[in-house]
Write a structure and sequence with these properties.
Length: 93
């Protein structure tokens, strides 16, 4: 038996990314894959700048360093993609 053992492969799950404009995209991702990979694929597909979008699951922000397994996400869970609001308020006149 070899010293190098192959780690058991994590299962893949299907996730729906729901945008503010109602356009949903579906992704299949391994449970141990960092979300940065899904986020950049989503932004590339939608022709968006990554830094202008924030992602949430059940109201909790998801960071690119998180994984589906780390957040206990399950098959067919939904992620919301929201445009990051910059600034705000009124300018003094």
């Amino acid at each position: 038996m070899s010293k190098r053992s192959r780690p058991s492969e994590m299962p893949s799950i299907n996730l729906k990314v729901k945008s503010q404009d109602g356009q949903d995209l579906y992704f299949k991702i391994r449970s141990d894959t960092k979300f940065i990979k899904l986020f950049t694929a989503y932004c590339d597909n939608r022709q968006l700048e990554y830094r202008t979008i924030q992602f949430f699951h059940e109201g909790q922000r998801i960071l690119g360093s998180h994984t589906p397994a780390g957040l206990n996400l399950e098959d067919n869970d939904e992620i919301e993609a929201m445009t990051h609001a910059l600034g705000g308020g009124c300018s003094g006149i």
